[in-house]
Amino acid sequence: MASIPSSTLSDGHRIPMLGYGTGTAWFKGSGNQSIDRELIESVKKAIALGYRHLDGAEVYGTEPELGAAIKECGVPREQLYVVTKVNQGVVDIPKAIDASLQRLGLDYVDLYVSHPPLLAGTYCWLEIAL
Question: pTM to 2 decimals?
Answer without folding.
Answer: 0.85
